[in-house]
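Entry 14. Structure prediction run on the chain below.
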Amino acid sequence: MLVLLSGSLVKAQSVATLNEGSLKSDWDSAAAASDSGPVVSSDVTASPAANSVPEAPRQHRFWDTENRLLFVAVGALSAADFAVTRANLRAGGRELNPITRLFGDSTAGLAVNFVGETTVIVGLSYYFHRTRHHQLERLTSMLNVGASSFAVGYDLSRR
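Output returned:
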C-alpha cells in the first residue's frame, strides 16, 4: 500500500490549479485519495495553460525598428566622424586614436577604418542578439553612438 501511494505521489503534479473557486493542488488530491485507495489519475478538468510552463518573453527580430534606428545613427555618426577627421588631417591635425592612426595616411584607408568600425558594431550586435543578450545588443550601438558623437564634437571644436 505504501509503495503504491509513494509511486502515485511522485507522478502527481505539483502545480496548484484553481478548481471551482477553491485553490486545490494535486498533492491535496493525492493525499485525500490515499484514504480511499491509490490515485488513478490526476485532475482532468485542469486547463492546459495551468499545467504548461510559463511562456518566455517573445524574442524581437534583429532588424526591428529600434535596431534600424540605432544602426542608421551608427552609420551617420561614423560618416560624420570620417568627414571631420579627414578634414582635420588635411589641415595638419593629428589623429589621436592609435588604431585609426594606422589607416589615416590615405582617404581610402580612413574610409576602410570607419566602414569596418560600423560593420563590427552591427556584427557584434547581431552576435549578442543570437546569444540572447538583448540588452548588450542595444548597448553596443548606443555606446558607439556616444563615442562617435564625442569624437565629432571634439574634432569640430579643434578646427
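The CA atoms of residues 80 and 152 lie 7 Å apart.
Filed with the rest of this week's runs.
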